[in-house]
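Morning F.,

Quick status update on the modeling queue. The single chain you submitted on Monday has been processed. Sequence for confirmation:
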Amino acid sequence: MLSAACADARKRVTDLLDAIPVLQRTIEHAAGQHAAIAEAIPAGDPDAARRAVAEHLEGTGALLRGFLA
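Structure tokens below.
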């Protein structure tokens, strides 16, 4: 269910996300955020997972606002 929800969310914002320039720093930062999310879930730490997801979404939103404004 989680992967289906993520795939649906990604599909809905593909055009916006594709507007972000591909910068190595951005890719590395996002990969670190994804790793934090992926580690918190099987560790059974919902608070850490929630914080990691919120941080990632806030950062992605800031990038979109900056590049698309």
